[in-house]
Specification:
The protein is of the alpha/beta class. Helix content is about 30%, strand content about 20%. The chain has ten helices and 13 strands. A nine-stranded mixed beta sheet has the order 5-4-1-8-9-10-11-12-13, sandwiched between helices. It has a four-stranded mixed beta sheet with strand order 3-2-6-7.
């Protein structure tokens, strides 16, 4: 089975400490728990897509130590194609320092490590995989030059592109028109557009050439903005949250899997909302990501009929423009 979703991926090891509330400058607190878990926005999104039934491949650069072995072992267990993962011998892997608070929210500092060396040549070496994919996705945890090359290649072969612009940073003017789907959260959206509200900000990014903006809003769900169309607001799910680590990555990866199968927008967004909500029910990112069957069961329990017809077992023909 050919790869359907290609992720230009970051790989990090998450060092997670649980503390009651955010630290003030210069303050030290005792942590309630400490964990070392797999992470990285790209790796997380790739795993989320794979658990929804998509065949996933990675383009990544990782370090040569035991943390790198952790990533390769994880992707093998998840059935993810890692033939285009390059190792930097003697280099440190990406590492995320994460503080999780009692209300489930978190703060994160990321050191990219070997991932900072991912470049256009690494992407070009994966031309065959990119050209036959249905969706190519990336985040801002990888060098934007690598993402630019991947999206240019995808555009040349009619492949849908999806960017999760996190962590938020300035995007080159040449990259905006290559983005078919952008998935920022509210804060990232407002920073990227320099606007005060999500309606204005989303329309500004559409004017820069983005095909569709999907703003994630936590338990409030998400809103889809497209040129010449009214916003589509999809409600979320209110659940007791253990932590929100990886929720945005789960949303992005699940959305990519749905779009790779040409799911219409309402169905794809309901499915991604549900997967993201379920991902808050356990600690860490990968450990909390649901399977397609778990999402289907959850949606059935809520009486949600918008996404009930989604079938990860029947892939239609690829398309660059998601259906309405």
């Amino acid at each position: 089975m050919p790869v359907e979703v290609v992720c230009v991926a970051s790989w990090n090891v998450d060092l997670i400490a649980h503390i009651p509330q955010p630290l003030e400058r210069g303050q030290t607190r005792m942590a309630n728990a400490l964990a070392r878990l797999p992470g990285g926005k790209g790796s997380n999104a790739a795993i989320a897509a794979a658990r929804q039934g998509a065949k996933v491949g990675l383009i990544a650069r990782i370090g040569g130590d035991d943390f790198g072995n952790m990533g390769l072992d994880l992707w093998a267990r998840e059935g993810i194609d890692s033939q285009h993962v390059v190792r930097g011998a003697g280099e440190t892997n990406g590492t995320a320092l994460i503080l999780v608070y009692e209300d489930g929210d978190n703060s994160i500092a990321v050191y990219p490590g070997a991932g900072a060396g991912l470049n256009a040549a690494h992407v070009q070496a994966a031309l065959g995989m990119l050209a036959h994919a249905r969706v190519v996705m990336a985040s801002c945890e990888v060098p934007l030059a690598a993402t630019q090359t991947a999206f240019e290649t995808a555009r040349a072969h009619g492949v849908l592109t999806l960017l999760n612009p996190a962590p938020a940073m300035p995007i080159p003017d040449a990259l905006w028109p290559l983005i078919d789907v952008l998935t920022p959260n509210e804060g990232e959206l407002l920073m990227l557009a320099g606007a005060a509200d999500i309606d204005t900000a989303s329309h500004q990014l559409l004017q820069r050439g983005v095909g569709a903006v999907v703003v994630t809003l936590g338990e409030r769900g998400c809103t889809l903005y497209r040129p010449k169309a009214a916003p589509l607001r999809v409600p979320g799910h209110t659940l007791d949250v253990l932590d929100t680590i990886g929720a945005g990555d789960t949303f992005t990866g699940t959305l990519a899997a749905a779009l790779a199968r040409k799911a219409p927008w309402p169905e794809a967004l309901h499915w991604a909302n549900a997967a993201a909500a379920l991902s808050t029910q356990a600690h860490g990112a990968v450990s909390a990501m649901p399977t397609a069957e778990q999402v289907r069961t959850f949606l059935s329990s809520t009486g949600d009929t918008q996404a009930g017809s989604f079938s990860p077992d029947v892939p239609p023909a690829p398309t660059r423009a998601p259906e309405s």
